[in-house]
Amino acid sequence: MKSYLENINKAFESRARLGIMSVLMVDERVDFNTLKDTLQLTDGNLASHLRALEEAQYLRVEKQFVGRKPNTTYHATDLGREAFKSHLDALEQLILSNRKDN
């Protein structure tokens, strides 16, 4: 098996998780509603993907109140950033390898 295939991370296989991490790589801190609107996901679907990424320690959650309203923000951890970069590098190598073969 090619070495770059070993770095494809199953945690990022879904469109939702790939999108979440992509947003968090660009913006240091993103709130739940922004992610929901950007990725066009339902509350439950987004919450389940966020929970999976949190359990993998790829993101952390910060809950606070802004005025009287609860506000939840998400941040990519250093571990999450490195894992995502490795995943993207592996995908890039896969794409380049397939282009060379054709």
Automatic annotation (TrEMBL):
<feature type="domain" description="Winged helix DNA-binding">
    <location>
        <begin position="17"/>
        <end position="95"/>
    </location>
</feature>
<dbReference type="Pfam" id="PF13601">
    <property type="entry name" value="HTH_34"/>
</dbReference>
<dbReference type="InterPro" id="IPR027395">
    <property type="entry name" value="WH_DNA-bd_dom"/>
</dbReference>
<dbReference type="InterPro" id="IPR036390">
    <property type="entry name" value="WH_DNA-bd_sf"/>
</dbReference>
<dbReference type="InterPro" id="IPR036388">
    <property type="entry name" value="WH-like_DNA-bd_sf"/>
</dbReference>
<protein>
    <submittedName>
        <fullName>Winged helix-turn-helix domain-containing protein</fullName>
    </submittedName>
</protein>
